[in-house]
Design brief:
RNA-binding, Rossmann fold, 20 helices, 47% helix, globular, four-stranded antiparallel β-sheet
Length: 572
RNA sequence: GCGCCCUUAGCUCAGUUGGAUAGAGCAUCGGUUUUCUAAACCGAGGGUCGUAGGUUCGAAUCCUUCAGGGCGCGCCA
């Protein structure tokens, strides 16, 4: 139960019923009306802005309106103990003991569903989709964790989520990749020097793949062309195996892998283009040269183009190259038509910062393909800046000198990586400081949250307490002190955090919230050092109130960390 | 030139779909442990929320201007 919403509903329906009495001509729009926990200095449990919102269109003084509304509520909503009016027209509400009692028992009842929005949509989330030309690096890692946690969050709400990986196993980069493997094989088998051609992949991992291919095959590898099909299949197999293993170590498992090649070999593209020709989103035409850097071999030729300008893009986009073959975007359009046909309620793509310029055209494509029925949302993750020994650490996949996820996992545990990757909004660059993450100290927020759990479990151990599945409290037990009340308010806010994080696709709000909750807990814990009154355990027994509060914390910690898929150790 | 993102304390960043005195962590300074885990806690200093306007009861948040930084701007993938 989200108390903010249910109480707000009580208030709004009460006001609607008494519309005439309150001299309200307009109560149609309650937009902007909300009920929330006020800043600590206000002191009350809840605060409502409804009178300020309604005053203007009805030409009323917000303060006078607040007085009337207060009197109205007093007789009708029993969960509200008292209501005060503050400056411009806030209603500051305190909850009755009865209300606390109901809310808490409801949380116990909901348990591992507490906070869930209880929606039932289908989602397709495409994320990672790293090119199968090498292992995952740290930049992929951010999008990977982001997509995974967003999926978990949406599942927590009751939705069905398909986590999808689009394998770019088609095009010139794959040829270069396969050629690199071929040359490494020649190097091993015939002691030939590796070529220094520009677009090849020189990285060490190519040698590993080459060795594995050699172990498996007795072919002579005399000619690149003759062995190409076999080599491509094997090279892709091993690079995808590498990537999947990295993902698995991060705790990420995709439900679906879609190969670009399979899309190309289907008739999806032809069908999509036929459809878009009818709606005039695709036409033959000419394109102007790009405005950025000058391109050498620019030719103004007639070709099929997608009119992405209709969707706010800077320019229309080519579906064909000069030689008439399809562009990457054309294949991606086909892939997205395939997604549209699978009839998800919502599509989400998680992209890296270098793909920002791609968003408008692909969103436009989905809009056109689905006739505005399917919404594609693109979330862009900004760069990860690596720091080592206090200075920035550059990486380049082509040169082969990058920090792979595997390297990272050898030094930093999975929990820290997952938590750290979400410790920033996706909209800002993330500084990933190797030294700090390795320190395993309080600088690493994941420990702080885990430590909170470890302390709770230590209390349970000391008094031999077993958490029961069916729990409830009796109203007589309600006598929370100010620290406990503060923690309770934070806990009541959990559903709101879930809601905002879900609606805005901003999973980072969850680690931030958990950190704040942990702060309140640690602070309360330490109060026992100053004053025996606040000790959790006395004479081998714990106070009922305290046990109630820490069990509620436990529920939120478990629900939150489950979404993050970060462990909660019982001892640290 | 254009598009997207960013600009909040010395540093790194949160900020409740517009709310009340703008918050954390780190750093600095001071304090807390015979007592449930000090991987912790408490206190102090530190702010023109990049700039200039606008919208309104109310703006860090919405709109516009300008400045600074990042990413991108293929008929590559």
């Amino acid at each position: 139960m989200n108390i903010f919403e249910s109480y707000l509903q009580d208030i709004t329906s009460l006001i609607k019923k008494n519309q005439k009495k309150l001299n309200l001509k307009q109560t149609n729009s309650f937009k902007g009306v909300n009920l929330e926990i006020p800043p600590p200095n206000i002191g009350s449990d809840l605060s409502c802005n409804i009178c300020m919102i309604l005053a203007k269109p009805n030409n009323l003084d917000p303060n006078n309106l607040a007085v009337q509304v207060r009197d109205l509520i007093r007789g009708h909503i029993s969960d509200f103990k008292d209501i005060e009016i503050a400056k411009p027209g806030f209603l500051n509400i305190n909850l009755s003991n009865e209300a606390y009692f109901n809310i808490i028992n409801n949380i116990f009842l909901e348990d591992n569903k507490f906070g869930s929005l209880k929606t039932n949509d289908t989602y397709n989330i495409e994320f990672v989709s790293a090119n199968p030309t090498g292992p995952m690096h740290i930049g992929h890692c951010r999008g990977a964790v982001f997509g995974d946690v967003l999926s978990n969050l949406l599942k927590f709400n009751g939705n069905k989520v398909t986590k999808e990986y689009y394998i770019n196993d088609y095009g010139t980069q794959i040829k270069n990749f396969v050629k690199s493997v071929y040359l490494r094989i020649r190097e091993i088998k015939y002691k030939e020097n590796f070529s220094n051609e520009k677009d090849l992949y020189p990285g060490e991992y190519i040698k590993d793949i080459a060795k594995k291919v050699l172990d498996k095959s007795k072919l002579k590898f005399d000619s690149f062309e003759d062995s190409y099909d076999f080599l491509e299949k094997e090279s892709l197999h091993y690079s995808m195996k590498m990537i999947k293993s990295d993902l698995e170590k991060l705790g990420i498992l995709h439900d679906s892998f879609v190969s670009e090649k399979s899309i190309v070999n289907s008739n999806a593209l032809q069908k999509a283009i036929e459809k878009l020709k009818k709606t005039k989103h695709v036409e033959e035409g000419f394109l102007e040269p790009p405005k950025g850097e000058e391109i050498k071999n620019w030719k103004k030729t007639k070709k099929l183009i997608f009119k992405s300008v209709l969707f706010g893009d800077d320019a229309n986009r080519a579906l064909q190259k000069n030689d008439g073959s399809w562009t990457y975007f054309a294949n991606d359009l086909a892939y997205h038509s395939n997604k549209v046909l699978r009839k998800y309620d919502k599509l989400i793509n998680i992209l890296g910062a270098d793909h920002t310029g791609y968003v408008k055209r692909i969103k436009g494509a989905v809009q056109a393909l689905s006739e505005n029925k399917t919404i594609l949302e693109c979330k862009v993750c900004q760069l990860v800046k690596l720091f080592k020994n206090g200075s920035p650490f550059k990486m380049s996949k082509r040169a082969g000198d990058f920090i792979s996820v595997n390297d990272l996992l050898n030094e930093v545990n999975r929990d820290s990586i997952r938590f750290m990757m979400l410790n920033r909004s996706n909209d800002v660059e993330l500084e990933f400081d190797f030294d700090k993450v390795l320190e395993k100290s309080k600088e690493n927020p994941v420990f702080y949250v885990q430590y909170c759990h470890a302390r709770i479990q230590s209390i349970f151990r000391l008094i031999n307490f077993q958490v029961k599945k069916k729990r409830n409290i009796k109203s007589t037990e309600l006598n929370f002190n100010k620290y406990e009340k503060e923690i309770l308010k934070k806990i009541f806010e959990w559903p709101k955090i879930v809601k905002i994080a879900s609606n805005k696709y901003e999973p980072h709000r969850i680690p931030f919230y958990l950190y704040e909750l942990a702060t309140l807990f640690h602070s309360y814990w330490s109060k026992g050092n100053e004053d025996d009154e606040f000790k959790f355990i006395k004479n081998g027994k714990a106070k009922q109130n305290t046990m109630t509060v820490i069990q509620l914390i436990l529920i939120v910690l478990q629900n939150g960390m489950n979404i993050l898929n970060v462990s909660l150790p019982s001892k640290m």
